[in-house]
Structure prediction request, 96 residues.
Amino acid sequence: MSFSQRLAVLVSGKKIADGKPEDVVRDPEVVRAYLASSISIENVHAAYGAVRVIEDVSIKVNAGETVTLLGTNGNGKSTLMKCVMASCTRPPAASS
Ligand SMILES: Nc1ncnc2c1ncn2[C@@H]1O[C@H](COP(=O)(O)OP(=O)(O)O)[C@@H](O)[C@H]1O
Ligand SMILES: [Mg+2]
Prediction:
């Protein structure tokens, strides 16, 4: 299944690759930036005030895997990604 014909990759606001997805995912800089480490979250819950949006979600994405999160509008995809990003190390500050 193919979701895109072109893939652009940003790191700290700088474009590091742009091209056919099958080429970009093999780019050494892209692999180093995004694909060489695993991500996992366990038993995550999230709410906006009293509105519970994420309920006990655990996900592990292994190094080299590309995972697509599907769901209809308002199902919590962006909220889950915010939880994942909050659990990641901040990107390094831009050098001057
Ligand atoms: N900042 C926010 N404040 C209050 N409710 C929010 C906020 N962001 C999202 N929501 C609500 O949380 C639920 C999940 O939203 P969201 O994670 O954006 O879903 P998706 O990305 O799958 O469309 C929706 O009901 C949405 O209205
Ligand atoms: Mg969204």
Remarks:
- Strands lie at 7-11, 14-19, 39-48, 51-61.
